[in-house]
Structures are given as structure tokens and as C-alpha cells.
Amino acid sequence: MKKIILSLIALLAFGNAKADEGMWLLKLAEQQHLEDSLRKAGLQVPLTELYSETSPSLRDVIGIFGAGCTGELVSSEGLVLTNNHCGFSYVHDISTNEHNYLYQGFFAKSRAEELPCPDLTFTFVIRIDDVTAEVEKAAVKGKGKKATKVDVYTMQSQEFLEPLAEKLLKKSGLADTKGISMRIVPYFGGNQFYAFYEQTYSDVRLVVNPPMQIAQYGFNQDNWVWPRHNADFAMFRIYAGADNQPAEYDKANQPLQCKKWLHVSLNGVKENDYTMIMGFPGRTSRYLTKSQVELRCGSTNEPINLAGEAELNFMKQQMDSDPKLALKYADDYMSLGNVTKNFGGMNESVKKTHLLDIKAEEEALFRAFAEQSGNAEYLDIIDRINACCETYKDSIYDRNLFQYTFAAGSFWVRPSQMDALLDKLEKGTATDADRKALLDSYMQSAGSVDMQYDLDKMLLLTPYWTEKHRLEAQPAFAAGKTADEIKEYFRNLYTTSAFRSYKTAEEFVMNCSAQQLREDPLYKHTKKVVNFMERTYADALDHYNHEIVELNRIYVRGLCEMYDWAKSPDANFTLRMTYGHVGGYQPRDAVRYDWKTTLSGMMEKENPNDPDYVIDEPLRKFWLDKNFGRYAREDGELQTCFLTNNDITGGNSGSAVLNAKGELIGLAFDGNIESLSSDLRFNPALQRCICVDIRYVLFVIDMYGGSSYAVKEMTIK
């Protein structure tokens, strides 16, 4: 019976040998017998070239770009490549209407022209340790019969892990290293824990950012869509102090001197070529039950997608009508568009791939395995998870809907800041500095917002809450009121509060009494929102999180035992490697997508009446002249993008795409919309990674933009 079960499991999990599931932690490569699989797939370099803690490897080359993407070193002097959309917010922050680097692009012609990017960091992994035993030991308080263990949720929380990380870092021998930090990350549902020693550089400067019409051609319409033709890349440089260690920005800093960097291949790619991607995939959830998938789709994705789509359409209309608004809201539009299209696409993909049926089959196998295992915890774990999801699904739905409707307005001052000033006003100890702190908070959140724009957005979103919320609970300003009455409430709020503009806010805050602040309409509104969130959702979500984390730990451990620990852990924004091959796909009957695109395809998409598909005229001139230099294919065309079946997710944006020799051939920048359920289960038939061809990248840097000095630094084969 057990052999039959394991055979069925093998068919269910590994039915297509050509598509290689797994975001592999190379620290575990030996125990998971990964090298054999890599060799069979086509890898031509030693495994130590990919990951080593004693000699230079890709671990020294691939890093965390900013807060949520991947970047890679491409020269001995700190040049970094990543995606344009990864650098988007940082370039947005240094852009103005006069110097709009986001839309018009930026190409430094020398190091002296490279632009500082405040708050941008680049982080390398220095070492990875298995600290499961240390975490388990720290989780036990007391000794002997009095010993107690913290609950599973707490054990995986940052409140528990951060102090332990600080303690272990002090013992590591790395504590005095500049820019060093350590984070402990749960794996396999909290059944294992690994410590990541990371070094962060904070002086990172912009070298190249392509114009929007090139970098984001098609913008949100083409997001998650194939075929693609945009050069989604940007180039930066890491600077260091005189000792080549992390240092705050200083004109005297020098480019980082690197032991290892990626070499670039101009040989291009062919169908079925081996590819591997190193990066920091954000999060997958492939060990979920059927009811958890239903919860994700119905209570998280659905309400966010519902309100998000409406806000996106509204935002797009405003941006298309005014270049200043286009720059102001470009970053918000990019972020919301990515989330909304992802969640909507995931729900559609779950239906089309019959994922719920597949999860039901896996659960049937697990129940049979549980009977054979002799572990009583496994027998009813699925039923317990189902009950938990059923109990909290409506609370989760309403909380997400509320977040994207009534809590979506930028006309907002942090309640904690208001309360801090109010407390001092009541005690008579408030200083001008205290009042100024509240004004600074206002500027950070609401000060740069067009209030009419924000009011119109709130009026648009109101019916989505009133018509779609599930529970009876309503915030005080909406209880018992129609959508029209709530809209009138917002009109009054946005026109009568002292915080309706910075000018009125400054005059009010610098002179108000405690009573005046307490009576301001915005203060009252923030208290209503916060009180409603805490009273209605906080306790329910806290109970859900504690319960589901404990149940998941048991279920994931059981699944890992059932699969003989042969599956990779879920993504959790730590350094991973995936491998696959170049190839197209067939998303539906009679439709087959090729694996590559060229610049000619961009011209075919042109629509001068749609801002997303307007051609950059200097780029058109290069195309008409077929002037692509050494970056052209043998047939004279410039290849723009290509597809692989590598297993990737958000966070892999900007990741290096490498050939069998470890040479850079492209950058991963997107997935295809048909495979968006792959965060819940890898789909070998549909999973594709969309990559920008390195030849397109170098053409834009070198020939189009004239930043040839940067290309000359790179090792190009």
C-alpha cells in the first residue's frame, strides 16, 4: 500500500520531468542531491561556482536590491544590474518635472555624473547557518518540570527571532563587520530555521535608467503578459569607504572593488538551452490545503482585486490627463497595478488549472499516508485547517476590502503622532518641536496629495464597501448610512478639516489647543477608523494567525515526510537558485507562443493613441536603420526578450539569468499571467519566466544612451 501511495505522489508532484520545480537553497544542495539533477539538466560549472562560503561564488555576486528585488554585480567596480521596475521608486524619488529621469530616462556619461539615490541599499549574503537547534532551545523557558515552550506563532515571529539573531551574531565572529546584520528565517512551515548573515551597502548611485517608453513599453496593460518588448532594466553602482566596506554617502567614496562578478555572453540563447536564475524569490505557498487556497482566492485576492481595479482605472485617467500627475502617481500606479493584476490573474489561473481538484487529490494521498505513519497529529490536521479557514474567512475578506476602500485614502495623518501631540497638549508640555513633528508626519503621508484627487478616489471606492462587505460590522461613519450619505460625509471631511492643505495644517497645528485638535474632523475620523479596525478585525486575525501557523507546521512536516523531503522549501525572500530551459508554451487550444521577441514586435504593437504604446522616436531610428552593432542577432534583428520555464516569483525581479557556463544572458522581470497560480502550485505546462535579453540591455546602455564607459568595465564574451 505504501509503495502505491508513493508512486501516486511521484506522478502528482513530478509529472513533467522537463520543467524543474524548486527554488533551491544551495546550502542544502548536498543533502537534497541537487548536483545530479543540475548535471543532467545541463550545468557545466562546478557547484562551488554557484555557492561557496570559502571561495568566491555567485553568493558574492547576487544581492538584495533595495527592499524587495534582486540585483547582480557585472563589473569589478560595483556595477549592478536589476529591473527598471525595481529601481522605479528610487528613480521616482530623485525625479522632478524639470529632471524627469523616470519618463525621460537617465544615462551617465562618466562616474562623476552618477546620481545618489537616498535610502537605496544593496545587501550581500555572507554566510548561512542552520540554527534550528538554537531556536528550539531558546523557545523553551525554565527547566525540568517547569519548562514551557513558546507557541509556534511566537517562535516564528520577529519579536522572538530578532533578539536571538542579535545574540548569535555577537558570537559569530562577524559582529564587528561594517554593515553586518543577521536574520533568522523559518523554513518548511517552521520545522527548520536558518540564519542569514548579510552585509548592506548604503551608497548606491544611478548609472542608467531607460526612458519609460522603452523600459515600461505597454506598462500595466502588458504586465504579466507575453509577448513582451520592454527593456525592463536599470544600472546602478555600489560605492564604499576607503576600506572597501559599507559607508554612508560621501563624495569621497569609491566604487566597490569586487572579487567576483558576472561575465556577459553575447552568443544569445537557443530553444532548450539550459538556464539558471539566482535571486531572492519573495513568497510562495505551495504546502496549502484546498481550503487554504480557497481562502487565499476568495478572502484575500478577490476584495483587493475588486477595489484595486477600480482605483487603477481612476488613477490611469488622471495620469493620462496631466504629465505632473503622471509623475506624481507613477510609483503608486506601478505598485497597485502589480498587486491587482497578480491577484486577479492568480484567481483565474486557479480555476483554469483546476488547482482545487489537484489539492483535493493531494489531501486524499496525505490522509492515506497519515493512516500509515502512526503519527496521530496527522490524522485530523486537514479537518482542523478546514475549520479554521471557515471560521475566519469573512473577517479576512472584510478586513482586506476595508483596507482597499475606506482605509485607502492618502488624506491621513498617523494617529500615533496625533495622540502624541494631544497628550503633551493636555499636560501643557508641548513644544514647537512637538508640533513640527506632527506636521512632518502630515507631509510624509498626506502633504503631497491633491485633495480633490483623493476625495474623488474615496467617492469612487465607497460603494465597493457598502455593496460587498460580508459581516454586519460597520465603521461608525458608515453604520446605517447609504452610499450617498457616506460620500457626503467624505466631502465634508475633506473640506472642513484643518489638515485639508499644508498651509491650513501648519497654521492649525502650531497654534491649536488639545480640545481643538480633538475636535478636528480628521482626528475624529482617524480614531473611528483605528477603533473599527482594532475592534472588528485585530482579535479575529490574531487568533487566526496563531492557530493557522501551528496547524501549518504540522501539515507541512507531514507533507515533507510524505515526499521524503524531496521538495524545495517555500520561497521566503532568501537566496535561491532555480534551473530550467528556454522554451515557448501553449496556453490554450490552437494558441502557441514562440520563446523569443524582437524590436520589430514593439513596432507592430505601436498605437499612437494609447500612451502605453507610443514608440520612442530615437529608438525607432535605430530600428529603421537596423543599427544594432554587435548586439544584433545573426539575421540582423535585435532580440528583446525570451522565455524560460524557471521557477520564479515576486522578488526574483532583477535576477540574473545565466547559461550553463554561468554567463549572464538576461534579466528575469516577469511571469506570464496563465501561471500566476504557480505561487500555490508549480505548473510545468504553463510556468514561464519572462526575461529581457542582455543584448537588448547593452544596446540601450551603449548605443542608444551613450553610457559606453560602463559597458567597457564589463567582461563581455
State the major sheet.
11 strands, antiparallel
How many distinct beta strands? 22
Unreliable stretches, pLDDT < 50, 5 or more residues?
A: 1-19
Mean pLDDT: 92
Q: For the CA atoms, what is the radius of gyration?
A: 27 Å
What best-fitting shape do the alpha-carbon axes yield?
globular
Using brief descriptors, characterize the structure shown:
alpha+beta; about 45% helix; eleven-stranded antiparallel β-sheet; about 725 residues; single chain
What's a concise summary of this model?
By secondary structure, the chain is an alpha+beta fold. It has 26 helices and 22 strands. The N terminus is likely disordered.
